[in-house]
């Protein structure tokens, strides 16, 4: 599949380019991103180059992983504020297919609803029969990643519980939350699964 742009009133999603390498390297050095994602840690500029020029390009070329840089609305080449990805996980062409959504947000772009808006654009495309046509989109995060969980909850993902020792992070299995979104599900919170860390 050829890369394309997703546009919304709050964000523009376009593929990262070599011009974004320094920004990706800067953001992925953030300790929060290292804690909650599978990016290499410590993260180097070479890691960013490999991500942009190989991993992203191969994902689109193989029709398996679709990655966008999240930028300000109307700015196809604007600064990278977050990263958004949809990957196929189950099924072959002609069969029912499932996929997974993943994202990270730069420290200077957190707390303003940007990731939720971008994830909504990506999820709508992934579940649209005229888009990727998935019949199930799943979200998973390591237990304790409340910002990621809030985004999934706002989009209408339904909790499927905690999977013990499920998510692999740099050679270590960690407990993970799992939730799913189906094409017919409303894109708004539909159940009272906690979206905030419990108070001590």
Characterise the protein shown here.
- By secondary structure, the protein is of the alpha+beta class.
- It has a domain at 6-134: 3-Layer(aba) Sandwich (Aminopeptidase), CATH 3.40.630.
- Helices cover 27% and strands 29% of the residues.
- It has helices at 21-28, 31-36, 45-61, 114-127, 146-154, and strands spanning 6-7, 12-14, 65-71, 82-90, 98-105, 136-142, 158-169, 172-181.
- Strands 1-2-3-4-5-6-8-7 form an eight-stranded mixed β-sheet.
- β4 (82-90) and β5 (98-105) form a beta hairpin.
- α1 (21-28) packs across α3 (45-61).
- It starts with 5 loop residues before the first strand and ends in a 19-residue tail after the last strand.
- Rough outline: globular
Residue fraction in strands = 25-35%
Radius of gyration (CA) equals 16 Å
- CATH class label of the domain at 6-134: Alpha Beta
Total helical segments: 5
Task: Please outline the major beta sheet.
Answer: 8 strands, mixed
Based on secondary structure, the structural category is: alpha+beta
CATH topology of the domain at 6-134: Aminopeptidase
Task: Work out the helicity level.
Answer: 25-40%
- Succession of helices and strands: EEHHHEEEHEHEE
Q: For this structure, what is the CATH homologous superfamily of the domain at 6-134?
A: Gcn5-related N-acetyltransferase (GNAT)
- Strands, count: 8
Side-by-side strand order of the widest sheet:
1-2-3-4-5-6-8-7
Q: Report the CATH architecture of the domain at 6-134.
A: 3-Layer(aba) Sandwich
Q: Report how far apart the termini are.
A: 48 Å
Round the mean pLDDT to the nearest integer and report it: 95
Low-confidence stretches are none
């Amino acid at each position: 599949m050829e890369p394309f742009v997703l546009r919304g009133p709050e964000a523009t999603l376009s593929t990262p380019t070599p011009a974004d390498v320094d920004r990706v390297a800067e953001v992925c050095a953030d300790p929060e991103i290292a804690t909650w994602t599978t990016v290499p840690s410590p993260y180097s500029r070479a890691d960013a180059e490999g991500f942009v020029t190989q991993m992203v390009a191969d994902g689109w070329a193989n029709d398996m992983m679709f990655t966008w840089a999240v930028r300000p609305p109307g700015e196809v080449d604007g600064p990278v504020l977050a990263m958004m990805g949809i990957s196929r996980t189950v099924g072959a062409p002609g069969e029912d297919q499932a996929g997974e959504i993943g994202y990270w947000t730069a420290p200077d772009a957190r707390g303003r609803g940007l990731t939720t808006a971008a994830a909504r654009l990506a999820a709508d495309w992934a579940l649209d029969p005229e888009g990727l046509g998935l019949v199930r989109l799943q979200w998973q995060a390591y237990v304790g990643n409340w910002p990621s969980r809030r985004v999934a909850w706002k989009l209408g993902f339904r909790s499927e519980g905690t999977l013990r020792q499920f998510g692999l992070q740099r050679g270590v299995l960690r407990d993970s939350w799992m939730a799913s979104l189906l094409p017919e599900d409303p894109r708004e919170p539909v159940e009272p699964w906690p979206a905030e860390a419990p108070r001590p």
